[in-house]
Each structure stands twice: as structure tokens, then as C-alpha cells.
């Protein structure tokens, strides 16, 4: 059985990582276009750096939850027949024990140099414009995919979806593309599709089956 699991902010909600669209969601106080677009970074890099520096520091105060750990157990059983494609930029899948994780929207704990294109593991702040460890230029940006930018590893995602038997979506509202289109893509290629979410998402009607409730309960129940 080959499985692709897509995760969103909902899988990290019970760990204390704010989601995007829920009441006190991350975007409150920050208009999306003010902090998560290349244009915003060109016009006000300080605001954007502080936005991601805050989220990067907050990672130290959160831990993986039973949903992350259950996916790590599933990986032990399936090995290369499982791929976790996450929209999340936190590191909770890896800290939960998963290794086969593809961050299609990037990672907080990585810095991307606009000078040399190099990537550097990053745990501190970027607002003070530190030099790139590879080329020395002060051209580092958060290694995340902003609106209007092409998500990472789309080819690998597509080829893996082409041959998957089961597509499972966990903790995502289905509001952001191309991730929101994966269920239809996989379904058209014969995969069974399952939604595990706190409540029906914008795409819930597109799934063969949907179970609603907290990820920390639904995911272990599905895995074990
Ligand atoms: C707003 C939307 C309409 N706009 C887009 O989709 C745009 C434009 C667009 C492209 N195609 C379209 C087609 C139609 C319309 C618009 C578009 N897309 C883009 O710009 C993308 C780039 C988008 C990426 C932007 N970067 C992010 N993140 C990184 C930064 C950062 O994190 O700061 S997006 C960011 O928002 C999204 C948030 O969604 P969720 O994770 O689902 O979170 P949300 O809060 O919305 O929902 C949480 C869910 O969890 C549930 N939940 C809550 N608690 C729990 C719980 N305890 N248990 C279980 N579930 C729970 C809730 O009920 C809820 O359903 C995630 O993707 C997240 O990564 N780029 C692109 O299209 O390039 C071209 C292209 C395309 C294909 C191939 C080649 C080229």
C-alpha cells in the first residue's frame, strides 16, 4: 500500500502552533499580503523578518503531538511507501520521528540566500541581516514559499501522487493551491481519498471518506 499524507496547520494546532484561518489564527493582525509575499519582503523586509523570526523562536516552546508521532509509526511500517507532504514550515514532523517529509512551502529552520541561492540551517533571527555562511552576502531570506511563488519539489509530489493508492489529508482547510488540488489529482488516478480534519474543509466533498475531530485522536486511531 503506497500512501501520500498531506498535512496543514491543523496537525500542529494541538502542539500550540497557531493555524492561519481559525479565530486567533496567525494572519490576525497581519494581512497575508503584508507578510507572505515577495512584494512585502521587497517593500518592508524588517516586518517580514520579524514575522518569521517570531515563529522560528516560538518553535522552542512547542512539542510534537500524538498525530505527529502516529505518522512516524506509520513510516516505520511502510518505509518508502509513505510520503508526508506538509504545507507546514514548523519542524514537528521531524521531531515526532518522521524522516520522509517534504516541506512544499519551506521551513522556518532554514535560510535561503538571494545572492548565491545557498540554503543554511538557521535557528536564530534574520532581521539583523547576518551574512550568508556560503557567500558572505547579507542576502538571506526566510526559506519559505510565499504567495505567488512556486512550491518546492512539485515534480516529486506529482510523480508520487501518480502512483499512490491512498491520499490522506490531515488538518488543512483546502484554501491554498496547488495543495488544495492534490485530492482531485490523486482521485483521478484511482487513489482512495480520506480527509481527517477538525471540521469539514472547503474540499471535503471531494474526498471518498471524511472523519472529523482533533488530529491527536483521529490520526492515531487511523494508523494503529
Ligand atoms: C489564498 C489562495 C486562494 N491563494 C492561493 O492559493 C495562491 C494563488 C493561487 C494559485 N493557484 C490558484 C488557484 C485558485 C485560486 C488561487 C490560486 N497560491 C499560491 O500563490 C501558491 C503558493 C502558496 C504557498 C503560500 N505559502 C504558505 N505558507 C508558507 C509561508 C508561511 O507559512 O508563512 S501558504 C500557508 O497557508 C496555508 C494555510 O492553510 P492550512 O495549513 O490549511 O491552515 P488553515 O488555518 O487554513 O486551516 C487549518 C485547518 O485545520 C483544521 N484544524 C484546526 N485544528 C485542528 C485539530 N486540532 N485537528 C485537526 N484539524 C484541525 C481547521 O478546521 C482547518 O480546516 C498553508 O498552505 C500554509 O502553508 N503558488 C502558486 O500557485 O504558484 C504557481 C504554481 C502552482 C502550481 C505549480 C507551479 C506554480
TrEMBL record:
It catalyses: N(6)-succinyl-L-lysyl-[protein] + NAD(+) + H2O = 2''-O-succinyl-ADP-D-ribose + nicotinamide + L-lysyl-[protein]; N(6)-acetyl-L-lysyl-[protein] + NAD(+) + H2O = 2''-O-acetyl-ADP-D-ribose + nicotinamide + L-lysyl-[protein]. Residues 1-224 form the Deacetylase sirtuin-type domain. NAD(+) binds at residues 8-27, 87-90, 171-173, 197-199, 215. GO terms for molecular function: NAD-dependent protein lysine deacetylase activity. Keywords: Acyltransferase, Cytoplasm, Metal-binding, NAD, Transferase, Zinc. Its cofactor is Zn(2+). The gene is cobB. It is found in: Cytoplasm. The keyword Disulfide bond does not apply. 2 residues (Tyr-52 and Arg-55) present in a large hydrophobic pocket are probably involved in substrate specificity. They are important for desuccinylation activity, but dispensable for deacetylation activity. PANTHER family: NAD-DEPENDENT PROTEIN DEACYLASE, NAD-DEPENDENT PROTEIN DEACYLASE SIRTUIN-5, MITOCHONDRIAL-RELATED. Zn(2+) binds at residues 113, 116, 132, 135. Substrate binds at residues 52, 55. SUPFAM superfamilies: DHS-like NAD/FAD-binding domain. Belongs to the sirtuin family. Class III subfamily. This is NAD-dependent protein deacylase. The active site is at 105 (proton acceptor). It comes from the Bacteria. InterPro entries: DHS-like_NAD/FAD-binding_dom, NAD-dep_sirtuin_deacylases, Sirtuin, Sirtuin_cat_small_dom_sf, Sirtuin_class_III, Ssirtuin_cat_dom. Its EC number is 2.3.1.286. NAD-dependent lysine deacetylase and desuccinylase that specifically removes acetyl and succinyl groups on target proteins. Modulates the activities of several proteins which are inactive in their acylated form. Its main location: cytoplasm. Binds 1 zinc ion per subunit.
